[in-house]
Each structure stands twice: as structure tokens, then as C-alpha cells.
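Task: sequence design from structure.
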């Protein structure tokens, strides 16, 4: 059987499969979260910047009211870039919206600070249309503030997201607490093996986001994925989700469609032959220079990813 949980460096367990909420629209998010929890998901991934945490909270409440226990659910949320100098304030806002007194995991969403006093609370821009950044605020300073959150009891673990090897190597010598998690885009078209290997070596758990290729799930149409799906007698989504668990990582999938939410619970143990087909697919894309990164917001910052640097 495929792993259902992974151990974090805090000793806590993170469920291997999580439910994503990015781009879940108003009026749909509560239903999706409540439905996901009712059919067996135990791990919910949100973020302040998604703008829908109040509905995530309503979905959680519906589940708790129907008997689901808080301690059986793993909730992640993320510090947004305009709050890098106000870390606890942003956490408190998220907790209030979520209706929780703690989250299981708090991540730094991106290692870049944006102007807290700019022309927009979440996405401040300069007159030329570029993002209004605080370039001299180091992500290491932000991490130091996040470390202090552990003593408040409002977070059970802290981690990072969108950290490249370069950024991890800047952070770790300065960190008192090693991040529990690095949440990164990951799929056979962008396996980021060097980051995964480094994280595993340092005891940092990796969570894969956008496993289906994000909006519109484009990876489900890739012939190599379909080939493994046919071989195993499962859907392409099951292959794309199971791929991460076979690599020792957890994975987040998002849907607002009940049939898909339920179908995405199917995780299978991929064997060596399956992984070879997927790894050969990656190798071919690498050779052709055709790895694909679907999520790369226009910060105008070099985050150190080799495909974007
Ligand atoms: P994803 O889960 O790879 O794909 C979501 C898309 O696939 C949606 O369009 C969804 O459609 C569709 N879909 C889902 N299941 C399907 C199925 N069985 N068959 C066909 N289509 C299906 O993308 P994602 O939302 O980018 O990533 C997952 C989660 O990771 C996010 O929601 C978020 O929580 C997290 N994330 C984190 C970061 C970060 O910076 N840390 C960045 C991106 C994502 P419908 O919803 O219309 O059904």
C-alpha cells in the first residue's frame, strides 16, 4: 500500500494527500472543503492570499459540527508577502477567518516581502505596474519572526514554500529551526529532484503543489501519464497524485467538483516500471529543454530555480 502519512521533523505526521483551495471561488469553497472532509480528506491547504479562508473556515466548521475532530485534521496556511514584517498579525487574521486557535503548519508563501503600505493590501503595485517589493527585507529575517511563532502555540510547525536550492542554502545556516516543510510545484514535468533530494537530506518534508498541472489539469492529457494509468487501471489523476507519494512527498490536489474531489482520493502504489515510464518522460522533457513551470507569479525576482534563473 502507498504511504498515507509522512513524519515531519517536529515528530508530527502530515497526511500524504491534502486538499487545495487556491482559486476556489467564493460560494464554492465552503462546499468543496466540507465535502472533501466528509469523504475522507484529513489535510486542508489554504493561504491568506487566496482570499477565501473565511469559507475554508466555514467548511471546517461544518465538518466539526458533523463530528470530525479538530485534532484529526491537518490544516496549513501561509504568510503573505505584504506581512513579512508583521508575521503574527497575518497569522492571527488567518486563524480568525479559519475559526481555529492553531494551524498544524504555517508556511512562508514566497521568500519575498511586498510593501505593507502600498496601494493594495495583498498585491501592491508601483506606477509602472510591477509588484511593489521591499527588496532589502531578507527572507531570513522573516524566517526568524516565524520561528518565534512556535512559542505562541498558534502553529504546530513552520515551513517554507517556493524555496529553491539557492534560497534553502541561504536560510539553513541562519535558521535556529529547520523548516518542517518546503511546499513546491512538483509533477513529472517539473520534478525538481535536486530540491527534493536536498530537503530529504536535511529532514525537510516536501509537499507537491499543482500536481495535475494546475488550472485545467493539463498534465492529465500527457501520453506517458495515460500509459501508466492504463497499465494500473486507474485515472491519470491517480497516477499524478501517487507519483509524489512514491517519491516520499505529500501532495495537494484542488477541485471544486464533487466527483473529482472524491475520485482524487484514489492513491495507488506505483511500481518501479511505472516510475521508470514517468522518469523517462521527465528525462525526455529535460533533454528537449521542455520542463514546464505552471505557477510563477510576476514578482520580478530571481528565486533561484534553474528553469527560471
Ligand atoms: P491542481 O490541483 O494541479 O489542479 C487543479 C485543477 O485541476 C482545477 O482546474 C481542477 O478543476 C482540476 N481537477 C482536479 N481534479 C481533477 C480531476 N480528477 N479530473 C480533471 N480535472 C481535475 O492545481 P493547484 O490548485 O494549482 O494545486 C493544488 C493546491 O496546491 C492549490 O489549490 C493550493 O492549495 C496549493 N498551491 C500552493 C502554491 C504555493 O505557492 N505554495 C501554489 C499553487 C498551489 P475544478 O476545481 O474545476 O474541478
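Answer:
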Amino acid at each position: 500500500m502507498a504511504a498515507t502519512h509522512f513524519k515531519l521533523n517536529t515528530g508530527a505526521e502530515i497526511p500524504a494527500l491534502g486538499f487545495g483551495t487556491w482559486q476556489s471561488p467564493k460560494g464554492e469553497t465552503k462546499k468543496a472543503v466540507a465535502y472533501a472532509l466528509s469523504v475522507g480528506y484529513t489535510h486542508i491547504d489554504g493561504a491568506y492570499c487566496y482570499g477565501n479562508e473565511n469559507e475554508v473556515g466555514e467548511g471546517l466548521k461544518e465538518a466539526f459540527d458533523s463530528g470530525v475532530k479538530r485534532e484529526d485534521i491537518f490544516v496549513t496556511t501561509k504568510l503573505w508577502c505584504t506581512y513579512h514584517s508583521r508575521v503574527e498579525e497575518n497569522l492571527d487574521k488567518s486563524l480568525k477567518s479559519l475559526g481555529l486557535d492553531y494551524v498544524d503548519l504555517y508556511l512562508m508563501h514566497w521568500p519575498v516581502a511586498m510593501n505593507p503600505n502600498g496601494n493594495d493590501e495583498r498585491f501592491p503595485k508601483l506606477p509602472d505596474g510591477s509588484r511593489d517589493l521591499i527588496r532589502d527585507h531578507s527572507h531570513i529575517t522573516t524566517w526568524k519572526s516565524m520561528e518565534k511563532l512556535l512559542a505562541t502555540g498558534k502553529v504546530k510547525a513552520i515551513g517554507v514554500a517556493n524555496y529553491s536550492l539557492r534560497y534553502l542554502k541561504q536560510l539553513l545556516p541562519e535558521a535556529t529551526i529547520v523548516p518542517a516543510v518546503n511546499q513546491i510545484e512538483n509533477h513529472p514535468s517539473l520534478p525538481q529532484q535536486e530540491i527534493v533530494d536536498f530537503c530529504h537530506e536535511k529532514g525537510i518534508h516536501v509537499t507537491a503543489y499543482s500536481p495535475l498541472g494546475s488550472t485545467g489539469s493539463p498534465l492529465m492529457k500527457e501520453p506517458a501519464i495515460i500509459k501508466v494509468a492504463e497499465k494500473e487501471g486507474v485515472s491519470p489523476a491517480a497516477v499524478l497524485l501517487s507519483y509524489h507519494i512514491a517519491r516520499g512527498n505529500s501532495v495537494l490536489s484542488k477541485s471544486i467538483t464533487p466527483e473529482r474531489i472524491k475520485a482524487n482520493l484514489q492513491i495507488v502504489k506505483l511500481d518501479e516500471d511505472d516510475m521508470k515510464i514517468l522518469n523517462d518522460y521527465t528525462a525526455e522533457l529535460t533533454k528537449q529543454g521542455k520542463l514546464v513551470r505552471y505557477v510563477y507569479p510576476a514578482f520580478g525576482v530571481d528565486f533561484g530555480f534553474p528553469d527560471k534563473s
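The first helix runs from residue 29 to 39.
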